[in-house]
Amino acid sequence: MKNDIILRGIAASPGIAIGPAFLFEERSILLEGALQPVRDIDKEIKKFKTAIRKSKKELEDIKRNLVKKLGLTKANFLDVQILALEDTWIFDETIKRIREEKKEAIRAVKEISKGLLAKFKEIDDPYLKERACDIKDVTKRIIKNLIDKKDKAISFPEKMIILVANNLSPSDTAQLEKEKVLAFLTDLGGRTSHTAIMARALEIPAVVALREITDNIFAGVKIIVDGYAGVVVVNPTEKTLKNFEEKRNHLLDIEKELLGLRDLPATTVDGYTIDLSANIEFTSDVDSAKNHGARGIGLYRTEFLYLTQMELPDEELQFKIYKNVVDKIYPETVIFRTLDLGGDKIFDNTTPEPNPFLGWRAIRFSLKRKDIFKTQLRAILRASYRKSVRIMFPMITDLNEVKEAKRIVREVADELDKKGIKYDRELEIGIMVEVPSVAILADEFAKEADFFSIGTNDLTQYLLAVDRTNELVASLYDHLHPSVLRTIKIIVESAHRNSKWVGVCGEIAGDPLAIPVLLGLGVDELSAAPIVIPEVKKVIRTLSLKESKEIANKCIGFSTSKEVRNFLRDIINTKLTAIKELILGEDYTKKK
Ligand code: PEP
Ligand code: MG
User: Fold this and answer.
1) Pocket of ligand 1 contains residue 487 by CB under 6 Å
2) Mean pLDDT value of segment 269-276
3) Which of 194, 292, 479, 481 is catalytic?
4) Mutation test of ligand 1: which of 432, 469, 508 has the most ligand atoms closer than 8 Å to its C-beta?
5) Domain-by-domain residue ranges, the chain?
6) 458 C-alpha to center of ligand 1: Å?
7) Which atom of ligand 1 lies at the shortest distance from residue 505's CA?
8) Measured from the CB, is residue 196 less than 6 Å from ligand 1?
């Protein structure tokens, strides 16, 4: 294998990690450099043949469905893949390698696929290039069918590893043995996909949208992950390792210094203090929030509790967990966001939706599954006994949803009253503003909600019509797009006109570049991943509110994200020299 193979993706979670690759899709294979030879050859061959049969059946079903649903007369293009399953180059060759080299079927198929693709790459013929895609698809399908689905526990060998996956769902991530994971790398995903958000919460460096990393590495190969710049170096030389170790030490020193701001307020040089809170996914994140200098919890993504369980958590379990969070952060407040299942956070994938981000998600789910919703509300209300809890509803689209959700809260409150159970009667109920319809009608919504929290992750995806998890369109997804900034301005003005406060809890609130704009637009609260809070605080403490207003005005006047970004990068470059490398995450490989 060549040295210093550089791959570029999207920087999803900061930090530099160095370690051996472990392929998630091959988690049944042991990591050890020289892999264990297969003991029962006949069993392995049987397993391979079963996977081939299963793949064939799947492809034939897809073909039949395409013909039926799309009204095609035939779908012969799939025949190429069906035939490839029994092609000597795949079928006979795999059996040969299992028999003669005692290789596991997954590894044999993967090696064969890699060899074939390398050959196709050398040929400059569009027809054959197309065939390379078929080989890739078909071998992926065989590997998928070779993975033992019963092997549900996501555990790893003894060593610390760099986890490499085509894609990692939030529920996969939630079930990982995180202590052994040095970093995540995925072919797919975007900066605000929930797996990336979780990597930041877990403080594990991550690079996503690498497109083909799973095709380009083998288990055990050494990898450098630079989560600041979104760069991966496969099979590095000693010199490269040394460079990255230097960069790591340098940035760790800066981060350590920033932790010195922990107990200082998020106050601008001209004396304006903004509420700086943390987003959390798990109870354990509360300690990290406090250690990084957050005030309260501005967004508790409660759905992660459902993603880590095999069954729906009951009221008592939820109450225990919620109370723990409330007690730990008291006297500061916690904003509980009610269940936001759906989109890429799937609890039960038995009935996949064609368009999950536009589908049965969040409050839409809760209003239909009142049993689940009421159980959660009871647990939250009970946890509000110290008067430090707020509730907010995710993905509100229509005013009637807010009215109905509030009616259900009242119903639950009445039930608690009847039982004599204590809760906060004045608890604030707010909504997430993350759908354009709410931004446009913000004045009307501000009359129903006690506060707004702007979810720019979804607001960006719905305003720009760009899937936040799709790496193919990641270059179009930008929370600094002027249309997003102008929408934030509309929302803040509407909230303030109605004497309501407004926070921002999307990833933009943890993006140091965006901080002057959010301050300048008059946002009252910022809530971000604990790991980025020190940087955000540093930016706030370097700026004045007056200059932030000027910066915000300038930014909303631009017409493209590029202009906004260039302008803001210049400001960071000149005003925040001490931490600019941390913020701008420059690419070390380009300096060589
Ligand atoms: C958002 O959409 O900005 C948000 C904070 O919610 P989530 O990322 O969980 O969808
Ligand atoms: Mg959202």
Assistant:
1) no
2) 97
3) 194
4) 432
5) 5-28+152-238, 41-146, 275-591
6) 6
7) 5
8) no
β-sheet bridge partners, residue 183: 162
Helices of type H across 498-544: 515-520, 533-542
Structure tokens of 336? 């509980």
**Catalytic residue from among 292, 481, 505, 555:** 505
Mean pLDDT along residues 404-419: 98
Q: 41-146 adopts what CATH topology?
A: Enzyme I; Chain A, domain 2 (1.10.274)
Q: Coil, strand, or helix at residue 433?
A: strand
5-28+152-238 folds as Glucose Oxidase; domain 1 (3.50.30)
pLDDT band at 31 (very low <50, low <70, confident <90, very high): very low
Q: Which ligand is nearest to the CA of 529?
A: 1
The 3-state DSSP class for residue 39 equals coil
Q: Higher-confidence residue: 494 or 109?
A: 494
Instruction: Identify the pLDDT of residue 34.
Output: 40
458 lines ligand 1 (CB under 6 A): yes
Name the token pair of 525. Answer: 């609260």
Of all protein residues, the one whose alpha carbon is nearest to atom 6 of ligand 1 is 455
Pull the structure tokens for residue 15. 């930090």
Q: What spacing in Å lies between the alpha carbon of 393 and ligand 2's midpoint?
A: 10
Query: 156 is written with which tokens?
Result: 């790893």
Per-residue pLDDT, averaged over 447-476, amounts to 96
Torsion of CA 487, 489, 495, 496, to 10 degrees: -170
Q: Is the CB of 281 under 6 A from ligand 1?
A: no
Cβ contact 225:16 at 8 Å = yes
The pLDDT > 70 percentage for the chain reads 91
Token duo for residue 150: 């019963």
Count, residues in the chain: 592
Q: In which region does residue 297 sit, left (phi positive, over 0), alpha (psi from -120 to 50) or beta (all else)? A: beta
Q: Is 555 a catalytic residue?
A: no
- Residue found by looking up tokens 């043995």 in the block: 177
481 is catalytic: no
The number of angstroms, rounded, from the C-alpha of 139 to the middle of its chain's C-alpha atoms is: 27
Provide the mean pLDDT of the chain.
89
Q: What are the tens digits of pLDDT across the range 45-62?
A: 999 999 999 989 888 877
- Given the CA of residue 434, which atom of ligand 1 is nearest to it? 2
How much is the pLDDT for 28? 42
Per DSSP, helices labelled H in 330-393 are: 362-368, 370-383
Q: How far is the CA of 279 from the centre of ligand 1 (A)?
A: 10
pTM of the model: 0.80
| Ligand 2 ion: Cβ-proximal residues, 5 Å cutoff | 434, 455, 458
Cross-strand bridge partners of residue 430: 392
Q: What is the dihedral of CA 195, 196, 197, 198, to 10 degrees?
A: 50
- Angle 423-336-285 (CA atoms, 0-180°, nearest 5)? 120
In this structure, CATH architecture of domain 275-591? Alpha-Beta Barrel (3.20)
Decide whether any atom of ligand 1 lies within 6 Å of the 511 Cβ. no
Find the 423 Cα to ligand 2 centroid distance in Å.
27
Fold match, 41-146 / 275-591: no
